[in-house]
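seq as requested:
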Amino acid sequence: MFSVCLKSFKQNITRRRKMNEEIKFKRGLGEGRWDRRLKQEMVRISKARTYEEAKHEWTATGEIWWDWNRDDTPSWVSESMNGRSKCLCGHKIVYHFEIYNEVTGFRECVGSDHINSYLILNEIKQRTGLTDEQITDAMIQEWIDVKIKSMKAEKWWEQFGEEFEQKFEAVREIDLRINVNEKGTYWDNTLSCYRPRTTIRKRASGGNMASIVWRWNHPDNRRNQQGVHGYPNKGLLNDLNEFYEMIEPLAKKMQDEDMAFKQRIILLNKQRGTLLRRGNTEIINDMLELYAIENFHEYSTGYTNDWETKFFNDIKVILSKENPLSPKQLETLQELLIPATEKQIQYLQALGFEGETNISKRQASNAINEIKQDGLNSHRT
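C-alpha coordinates:
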Protein backbone atom coordinates (compact mmCIF):
# COMPACT_ATOMS: atom_id res chain seq x y z
CA MET A 1 0.00 0.00 0.00
CA PHE A 2 2.80 2.38 0.95
CA SER A 3 4.68 1.69 -2.31
CA VAL A 4 1.53 2.50 -4.32
CA CYS A 5 1.08 5.82 -2.49
CA LEU A 6 4.76 6.65 -2.94
CA LYS A 7 4.53 5.90 -6.66
CA SER A 8 1.44 8.13 -6.98
CA PHE A 9 3.20 10.91 -5.06
CA LYS A 10 6.24 10.74 -7.34
CA GLN A 11 4.00 10.82 -10.41
CA ASN A 12 2.28 13.97 -9.14
CA ILE A 13 5.63 15.63 -8.46
CA THR A 14 6.80 14.74 -11.97
CA ARG A 15 3.62 16.17 -13.48
CA ARG A 16 3.95 19.41 -11.55
CA ARG A 17 7.54 19.76 -12.74
CA LYS A 18 6.42 19.12 -16.30
CA MET A 19 3.72 21.73 -15.89
CA ASN A 20 6.35 24.37 -15.15
CA GLU A 21 8.63 23.43 -18.04
CA GLU A 22 9.07 25.97 -20.81
CA ILE A 23 8.01 24.53 -24.15
CA LYS A 24 9.93 25.56 -27.27
CA PHE A 25 8.73 24.60 -30.71
CA LYS A 26 10.90 22.68 -33.18
CA ARG A 27 11.50 24.14 -36.60
CA GLY A 28 11.08 20.64 -38.03
CA LEU A 29 11.43 16.94 -37.28
CA GLY A 30 14.87 15.37 -37.27
CA GLU A 31 16.14 11.84 -37.70
CA GLY A 32 15.96 10.66 -34.12
CA ARG A 33 14.00 7.55 -33.16
CA TRP A 34 10.78 9.29 -32.08
CA ASP A 35 10.94 11.86 -34.89
CA ARG A 36 11.18 9.06 -37.47
CA ARG A 37 8.28 7.22 -35.84
CA LEU A 38 6.08 10.32 -35.96
CA LYS A 39 6.86 10.90 -39.64
CA GLN A 40 5.89 7.31 -40.41
CA GLU A 41 2.62 7.52 -38.50
CA MET A 42 1.64 10.87 -40.01
CA VAL A 43 2.26 9.54 -43.54
CA ARG A 44 0.37 6.33 -42.77
CA ILE A 45 -2.87 8.23 -42.02
CA SER A 46 -2.37 10.94 -44.65
CA LYS A 47 -3.26 10.96 -48.34
CA ALA A 48 0.24 12.00 -49.40
CA ARG A 49 2.88 9.28 -49.48
CA THR A 50 5.89 11.29 -48.31
CA TYR A 51 6.32 13.27 -45.12
CA GLU A 52 7.35 16.47 -46.93
CA GLU A 53 3.96 16.42 -48.69
CA ALA A 54 1.91 14.92 -45.85
CA LYS A 55 2.96 17.52 -43.28
CA HIS A 56 1.02 20.19 -45.18
CA GLU A 57 -2.21 18.24 -44.63
CA TRP A 58 -1.90 18.57 -40.85
CA THR A 59 -2.62 21.56 -38.66
CA ALA A 60 -2.73 22.22 -34.92
CA THR A 61 -6.31 22.91 -33.81
CA GLY A 62 -5.37 24.94 -30.74
CA GLU A 63 -6.81 22.35 -28.36
CA ILE A 64 -4.43 21.37 -25.56
CA TRP A 65 -5.00 18.98 -22.67
CA TRP A 66 -2.83 18.41 -19.65
CA ASP A 67 -2.59 14.93 -18.14
CA TRP A 68 -4.21 15.97 -14.84
CA ASN A 69 -6.82 13.30 -14.11
CA ARG A 70 -8.76 10.63 -15.94
CA ASP A 71 -12.19 12.13 -15.40
CA ASP A 72 -11.98 14.88 -18.00
CA THR A 73 -10.00 13.23 -20.80
CA PRO A 74 -11.30 14.63 -24.13
CA SER A 75 -12.34 12.19 -26.85
CA TRP A 76 -9.56 13.28 -29.23
CA VAL A 77 -7.10 12.02 -26.59
CA SER A 78 -8.88 8.88 -25.40
CA GLU A 79 -9.73 7.84 -28.98
CA SER A 80 -6.31 8.63 -30.41
CA MET A 81 -4.18 5.79 -31.77
CA ASN A 82 -2.04 5.43 -28.65
CA GLY A 83 -4.52 6.81 -26.11
CA ARG A 84 -3.95 8.93 -23.06
CA SER A 85 -0.39 9.96 -22.10
CA LYS A 86 1.06 8.89 -25.47
CA CYS A 87 2.11 10.90 -28.50
CA LEU A 88 1.27 9.64 -32.00
CA CYS A 89 4.91 8.52 -32.12
CA GLY A 90 4.37 6.33 -29.04
CA HIS A 91 6.43 8.43 -26.62
CA LYS A 92 5.05 9.22 -23.14
CA ILE A 93 3.73 12.79 -22.79
CA VAL A 94 2.09 15.13 -20.30
CA TYR A 95 0.90 17.89 -22.63
CA HIS A 96 -1.45 16.72 -25.42
CA PHE A 97 -1.79 18.89 -28.55
CA GLU A 98 -4.62 18.05 -30.96
CA ILE A 99 -3.69 17.93 -34.66
CA TYR A 100 -6.10 17.51 -37.56
CA ASN A 101 -5.64 16.22 -41.10
CA GLU A 102 -7.76 18.42 -43.36
CA VAL A 103 -7.65 15.89 -46.19
CA THR A 104 -8.43 12.59 -44.44
CA GLY A 105 -10.31 13.99 -41.43
CA PHE A 106 -8.14 12.14 -38.90
CA ARG A 107 -7.65 13.68 -35.46
CA GLU A 108 -4.60 12.76 -33.41
CA CYS A 109 -2.51 14.13 -30.58
CA VAL A 110 1.20 14.85 -30.21
CA GLY A 111 3.32 15.91 -27.27
CA SER A 112 5.23 19.14 -26.66
CA ASP A 113 8.37 17.72 -28.31
CA HIS A 114 6.49 17.23 -31.59
CA ILE A 115 4.30 20.32 -31.86
CA ASN A 116 6.60 21.62 -34.60
CA SER A 117 6.33 24.82 -36.56
CA TYR A 118 4.50 23.38 -39.60
CA LEU A 119 1.56 22.27 -37.47
CA ILE A 120 1.27 25.65 -35.75
CA LEU A 121 2.07 27.63 -38.88
CA ASN A 122 -0.85 26.04 -40.74
CA GLU A 123 -3.24 27.00 -37.93
CA ILE A 124 -2.00 30.60 -37.86
CA LYS A 125 -2.29 30.87 -41.67
CA GLN A 126 -5.90 29.70 -41.63
CA ARG A 127 -6.85 32.01 -38.76
CA THR A 128 -5.02 35.16 -39.87
CA GLY A 129 -4.60 34.84 -43.62
CA LEU A 130 -0.85 35.45 -43.34
CA THR A 131 1.65 33.73 -45.61
CA ASP A 132 4.47 31.42 -44.50
CA GLU A 133 6.97 34.24 -44.95
CA GLN A 134 4.93 36.66 -42.82
CA ILE A 135 4.67 34.31 -39.85
CA THR A 136 7.69 34.73 -37.56
CA ASP A 137 9.23 32.37 -35.01
CA ALA A 138 8.07 34.77 -32.29
CA MET A 139 4.46 34.40 -33.46
CA ILE A 140 4.75 30.61 -33.35
CA GLN A 141 6.27 30.67 -29.87
CA GLU A 142 3.58 33.09 -28.70
CA TRP A 143 0.94 30.64 -29.97
CA ILE A 144 2.41 27.93 -27.72
CA ASP A 145 2.83 30.24 -24.71
CA VAL A 146 -0.75 31.54 -24.90
CA LYS A 147 -2.24 28.07 -25.31
CA ILE A 148 -0.20 26.61 -22.46
CA LYS A 149 -1.03 29.52 -20.17
CA SER A 150 -4.74 29.18 -20.88
CA MET A 151 -4.69 25.42 -20.35
CA LYS A 152 -2.74 25.66 -17.08
CA ALA A 153 -5.10 28.29 -15.71
CA GLU A 154 -8.17 26.27 -16.71
CA LYS A 155 -6.92 23.11 -15.02
CA TRP A 156 -5.82 24.93 -11.89
CA TRP A 157 -9.16 26.68 -11.44
CA GLU A 158 -10.99 23.45 -12.08
CA GLN A 159 -9.30 21.79 -9.13
CA PHE A 160 -8.53 24.61 -6.68
CA GLY A 161 -10.52 27.63 -7.85
CA GLU A 162 -13.50 27.43 -5.50
CA GLU A 163 -11.38 27.10 -2.36
CA PHE A 164 -9.03 29.88 -3.47
CA GLU A 165 -11.85 32.34 -4.19
CA GLN A 166 -13.51 31.61 -0.85
CA LYS A 167 -10.30 32.26 1.09
CA PHE A 168 -9.30 35.27 -0.99
CA GLU A 169 -12.64 37.02 -0.49
CA ALA A 170 -12.45 36.28 3.24
CA VAL A 171 -9.06 38.00 3.64
CA ARG A 172 -9.32 40.76 1.02
CA GLU A 173 -10.33 43.70 3.24
CA ILE A 174 -8.19 42.57 6.16
CA ASP A 175 -5.15 42.19 3.90
CA LEU A 176 -5.49 45.77 2.63
CA ARG A 177 -5.41 47.06 6.22
CA ILE A 178 -2.87 44.70 7.78
CA ASN A 179 -0.29 44.04 5.07
CA VAL A 180 0.86 47.65 4.77
CA ASN A 181 3.98 49.69 5.44
CA GLU A 182 3.89 52.64 7.83
CA LYS A 183 5.91 55.75 7.09
CA GLY A 184 5.33 59.01 8.90
CA THR A 185 2.01 60.34 10.16
CA TYR A 186 -0.81 62.61 9.01
CA TRP A 187 -3.46 64.59 10.81
CA ASP A 188 -6.88 62.96 10.64
CA ASN A 189 -9.41 65.79 10.83
CA THR A 190 -12.28 63.38 11.45
CA LEU A 191 -10.60 61.77 14.45
CA SER A 192 -8.63 64.90 15.47
CA CYS A 193 -5.41 62.98 15.97
CA TYR A 194 -2.28 61.90 14.19
CA ARG A 195 -2.45 58.54 12.44
CA PRO A 196 0.21 56.45 10.68
CA ARG A 197 0.52 57.07 6.96
CA THR A 198 0.24 53.65 5.31
CA THR A 199 0.97 52.25 1.87
CA ILE A 200 0.25 48.78 0.54
CA ARG A 201 3.19 46.41 1.11
CA LYS A 202 4.37 45.36 -2.34
CA ARG A 203 7.27 43.21 -1.18
CA ALA A 204 7.81 41.06 1.88
CA SER A 205 10.06 42.74 4.45
CA GLY A 206 11.07 42.23 8.06
CA GLY A 207 9.27 38.91 8.28
CA ASN A 208 6.01 40.48 7.04
CA MET A 209 4.37 39.12 3.91
CA ALA A 210 3.59 41.26 0.88
CA SER A 211 -0.05 42.15 0.31
CA ILE A 212 -2.05 39.23 -1.07
CA VAL A 213 -4.38 41.56 -2.97
CA TRP A 214 -1.43 43.42 -4.51
CA ARG A 215 0.11 40.24 -5.82
CA TRP A 216 -3.10 38.63 -7.04
CA ASN A 217 -5.30 41.22 -8.76
CA HIS A 218 -4.61 44.79 -7.59
CA PRO A 219 -5.45 47.11 -10.54
CA ASP A 220 -2.32 49.24 -9.93
CA ASN A 221 -0.04 46.21 -10.22
CA ARG A 222 0.60 45.65 -13.91
CA ARG A 223 2.32 42.35 -13.09
CA ASN A 224 -0.40 40.92 -10.88
CA GLN A 225 -0.61 37.15 -11.08
CA GLN A 226 -4.20 37.01 -12.26
CA GLY A 227 -3.28 38.97 -15.36
CA VAL A 228 0.14 37.43 -16.01
CA HIS A 229 -0.42 33.75 -15.18
CA GLY A 230 -4.15 33.33 -14.68
CA TYR A 231 -3.61 31.43 -11.43
CA PRO A 232 -1.63 32.09 -8.21
CA ASN A 233 1.91 30.84 -7.69
CA LYS A 234 3.07 28.71 -4.78
CA GLY A 235 4.31 31.66 -2.70
CA LEU A 236 0.99 33.47 -2.90
CA LEU A 237 -0.96 30.30 -2.06
CA ASN A 238 1.21 29.62 1.00
CA ASP A 239 0.76 33.19 2.26
CA LEU A 240 -2.99 33.07 1.60
CA ASN A 241 -3.36 29.87 3.62
CA GLU A 242 -1.22 31.26 6.45
CA PHE A 243 -3.13 34.55 6.52
CA TYR A 244 -6.47 32.75 6.35
CA GLU A 245 -5.57 30.80 9.52
CA MET A 246 -5.11 34.13 11.35
CA ILE A 247 -8.33 35.68 10.08
CA GLU A 248 -10.33 35.48 13.33
CA PRO A 249 -7.91 37.40 15.60
CA LEU A 250 -7.15 39.87 12.80
CA ALA A 251 -10.85 40.49 12.16
CA LYS A 252 -11.36 41.02 15.91
CA LYS A 253 -8.49 43.50 15.95
CA MET A 254 -10.05 45.46 13.09
CA GLN A 255 -13.48 45.44 14.73
CA ASP A 256 -12.01 46.76 17.99
CA GLU A 257 -10.15 49.46 16.06
CA ASP A 258 -13.28 50.48 14.16
CA MET A 259 -15.28 50.60 17.39
CA ALA A 260 -12.63 52.81 19.02
CA PHE A 261 -12.84 55.17 16.02
CA LYS A 262 -16.64 55.36 16.31
CA GLN A 263 -16.47 56.06 20.02
CA ARG A 264 -13.90 58.80 19.47
CA ILE A 265 -16.07 60.44 16.81
CA ILE A 266 -19.06 60.36 19.17
CA LEU A 267 -16.94 61.94 21.92
CA LEU A 268 -15.59 64.60 19.55
CA ASN A 269 -19.09 65.47 18.36
CA LYS A 270 -20.20 65.91 21.97
CA GLN A 271 -17.21 68.11 22.72
CA ARG A 272 -17.79 70.18 19.60
CA GLY A 273 -21.41 70.61 20.58
CA THR A 274 -20.24 71.95 23.95
CA LEU A 275 -17.88 74.35 22.20
CA LEU A 276 -20.78 76.12 20.54
CA ARG A 277 -22.04 77.24 23.94
CA ARG A 278 -18.70 78.63 25.16
CA GLY A 279 -16.70 81.80 24.73
CA ASN A 280 -13.67 82.21 22.49
CA THR A 281 -11.09 81.41 25.18
CA GLU A 282 -12.88 78.24 26.22
CA ILE A 283 -13.36 77.23 22.59
CA ILE A 284 -9.66 77.74 21.87
CA ASN A 285 -8.67 75.73 24.94
CA ASP A 286 -10.97 72.87 24.01
CA MET A 287 -9.75 72.89 20.42
CA LEU A 288 -6.16 72.79 21.68
CA GLU A 289 -7.09 69.80 23.78
CA LEU A 290 -8.59 68.07 20.76
CA TYR A 291 -5.33 68.55 18.88
CA ALA A 292 -3.31 67.52 21.96
CA ILE A 293 -1.38 70.81 21.79
CA GLU A 294 0.40 71.72 25.05
CA ASN A 295 1.97 74.98 26.29
CA PHE A 296 0.29 76.99 23.53
CA HIS A 297 -0.54 80.02 25.70
CA GLU A 298 2.83 80.00 27.51
CA TYR A 299 4.87 79.67 24.33
CA SER A 300 2.84 82.15 22.26
CA THR A 301 3.18 85.13 24.62
CA GLY A 302 6.39 87.07 25.13
CA TYR A 303 9.70 86.91 23.29
CA THR A 304 8.11 86.29 19.92
CA ASN A 305 8.99 88.17 16.77
CA ASP A 306 6.42 89.89 14.56
CA TRP A 307 5.90 86.89 12.28
CA GLU A 308 5.50 84.48 15.21
CA THR A 309 3.08 86.82 16.97
CA LYS A 310 0.94 87.08 13.81
CA PHE A 311 1.04 83.31 13.29
CA PHE A 312 -0.13 82.59 16.85
CA ASN A 313 -2.92 85.17 16.54
CA ASP A 314 -4.05 83.61 13.25
CA ILE A 315 -4.14 80.19 14.92
CA LYS A 316 -6.27 81.55 17.74
CA VAL A 317 -8.76 82.97 15.25
CA ILE A 318 -8.97 79.65 13.38
CA LEU A 319 -9.46 77.67 16.58
CA SER A 320 -12.06 80.11 17.94
CA LYS A 321 -14.14 79.46 14.81
CA GLU A 322 -13.76 75.68 15.29
CA ASN A 323 -12.06 75.38 11.91
CA PRO A 324 -9.51 72.59 11.36
CA LEU A 325 -5.81 73.36 11.17
CA SER A 326 -3.94 72.39 8.03
CA PRO A 327 -1.07 69.86 8.16
CA LYS A 328 1.36 72.71 7.41
CA GLN A 329 -0.03 74.82 10.29
CA LEU A 330 0.24 71.87 12.66
CA GLU A 331 3.81 71.23 11.54
CA THR A 332 4.76 74.87 12.15
CA LEU A 333 3.08 74.79 15.57
CA GLN A 334 5.09 71.73 16.53
CA GLU A 335 8.31 73.55 15.65
CA LEU A 336 7.34 76.70 17.59
CA LEU A 337 6.22 74.75 20.67
CA ILE A 338 9.41 72.79 21.26
CA PRO A 339 10.53 73.42 24.89
CA ALA A 340 13.75 75.33 25.49
CA THR A 341 16.83 73.21 26.08
CA GLU A 342 18.56 73.06 29.45
CA LYS A 343 21.61 74.64 27.86
CA GLN A 344 19.53 77.63 26.67
CA ILE A 345 18.02 78.14 30.12
CA GLN A 346 21.45 78.03 31.78
CA TYR A 347 22.80 80.54 29.27
CA LEU A 348 19.83 82.86 29.84
CA GLN A 349 20.35 82.75 33.59
CA ALA A 350 24.04 83.45 33.09
CA LEU A 351 23.01 86.57 31.17
CA GLY A 352 20.92 87.66 34.13
CA PHE A 353 17.54 86.44 32.94
CA GLU A 354 15.20 86.06 35.91
CA GLY A 355 11.89 85.43 34.20
CA GLU A 356 9.77 82.32 33.75
CA THR A 357 11.85 79.46 32.36
CA ASN A 358 8.85 77.51 31.00
CA ILE A 359 9.42 78.91 27.53
CA SER A 360 9.92 77.48 24.07
CA LYS A 361 13.18 76.92 22.28
CA ARG A 362 12.28 79.77 19.90
CA GLN A 363 11.38 82.11 22.79
CA ALA A 364 14.66 81.35 24.52
CA SER A 365 16.60 82.11 21.33
CA ASN A 366 14.72 85.40 20.89
CA ALA A 367 15.33 86.35 24.53
CA ILE A 368 19.05 85.62 24.27
CA ASN A 369 19.34 87.76 21.13
CA GLU A 370 17.35 90.57 22.74
CA ILE A 371 19.41 90.61 25.92
CA LYS A 372 22.69 90.50 24.03
CA GLN A 373 21.58 93.18 21.58
CA ASP A 374 20.31 95.60 24.17
CA GLY A 375 23.08 94.88 26.62
CA LEU A 376 20.44 94.80 29.33
CA ASN A 377 19.89 92.47 32.22
CA SER A 378 16.20 93.20 32.24
CA HIS A 379 13.67 90.54 31.48
CA ARG A 380 10.07 90.17 30.65
CA THR A 381 7.88 88.13 32.93
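Strands lie at 58-66, 95-101, 107-110, 180-188, 193-200.
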